[in-house]
Write a structure and sequence with these properties.
The chain is an all-alpha fold and 156 residues long. 80% of the residues lie in helices and 0% in strands.
Amino acid sequence: MSEFDTSEWRVDRDAKLMAWVQNPHAVQFILAIGDAAELWDDLIDQDKPIHAQAVNRVFTTLTTVLPLNPFFDTYKLQLIPLLVAGINAWHDATELEKGSDNDKAIAYVLRDWYVELTMFVVYLTRGQDTMRTLSLEIRRFFSQHESLHDYMEKLS
């Protein structure tokens, strides 16, 4: 866990996700994709220790739990293209982090593609108007832990 990613923060995050999405299967989907994305990033960046139980948990979830998730099953044709775009954004962010300051600023935004996933899940579960009402609150919640300046300094 990073310094902001505490047990207390996760409890707060999970409660907020449930309030925003109002569908426990949709929240489980968001958390499963986030867990997989964090592990994938750690495997590629090699900046944190990788524990076997995390690999086992993520692969088990992706291969046996997620396909049976009722929310994912209902909306998989809408969600998979968004996942494809998100994975592509993450690949680009990883490369852009090595470039100019402008590239790094773009990477700072792209690396948080899961916020777009959360927005789309709110759209699917509660509609366009609710997504727009909650949009800035969701973005601010997930981006408050690291400023662009702090991110740029870490990359230097």
